[in-house]
Amino acid sequence: MNSTRAVHVPNKTSKMSKGSKGSGARPQGSSLGAGRRVLRGVALAATVPYLVLKSAWLSGSRAGIPEGSPLLEPGMFLTLANAVTLAMDACVILLVLALTRPWGMRLPPWLLTVPAFAATGLLTPILTAFPAQLLILAVDPGARAPAEGAVRPFLDSWVFTVVYTGFTIQGLALAGLFVPYARERWGRHWQGVRGRGLPSPTGVVAGAVAVCAVLVAGVHVYWALGGTGGMGAERAAARSATAGVVPGVHAICLLAAGAGALLLARGGSRRVWRPLALTWTGSAAALCWGLWPLIASLGTQLDGGEHPSGTVRLIYAGQMITGVLAAAVLARFLASRREA
């Protein structure tokens, strides 16, 4: 009798443990806290202005486009650019639902982390730089916004305000949704301390990340402080206090990627989530804002101005390389946590 109980009790406990783990890892939409439900609604609402504008432009509307803007010129490149960016913002809706619906927990990890990584990279500099630019304009209304230096009228000023306000809200809401999702699904990988350092080859890569980050960030700091060397004549002429915020933010993201990669490679007894957050955010921003403008520089310039100079393109490439290497260190660190 006693031996029979000894067999049945652990089995029952095991089943209860498995059941509780499964239910905890797949929260139902109705069981989301009020805060997450609000964030979901806010994130979805924040996509509407951009989606409406892009859809209107693809349908032939001229809303927000002044007379003489290069956006009014016919061309397949502009149509394709509008379609691609419309699809990118529509993906935010899918990402929000994946982070808050039960089926999101059943997605393959890469199918969620890749768009989340891209969203982090594209939105982090915007939600950091845009409020800073608004603050500068509030203190000094005479400071010119970056778009005002364009060769020809590009978009009405209200378009930038509406669009970048929406992007800022999207970024904050997605961060508020992704963190609890990651805690529920992968919390064991980024809790605790960093532990043992990574193998030597990864340490070499982390060192390369740090060197690239410092070099490229140095150029961005030079531009942020008012330097114009290597920018090209038109970009130099369009310099302003608000425009200087952007390279300053890029420099911070690059340095975050370099510092985070070094800390992950070294290991140690300090908590792991801080260097993970630095590397995730910094590498995503560096990669996305190196790759995206580098691709855009190969096509028609939407503001009708000159193409980026060779130096600017080199900096884009440096950002992209830094981001790729830092992301590789991040992936290797997470793989080592899984193996452990």
TrEMBL record:
Region span, Disordered: 1-32
Domain of life of the source: Bacteria
Compositionally biased tracts (Low complexity): 12-24
Organism from which the protein derives: Streptomyces goshikiensis
Protein name: Uncharacterized protein
Keyword vocabulary terms for this entry: Membrane, Transmembrane, Transmembrane helix
Membrane-spanning segments: 38-57, 77-99, 111-138, 158-182, 203-225, 245-265, 277-295, 315-335
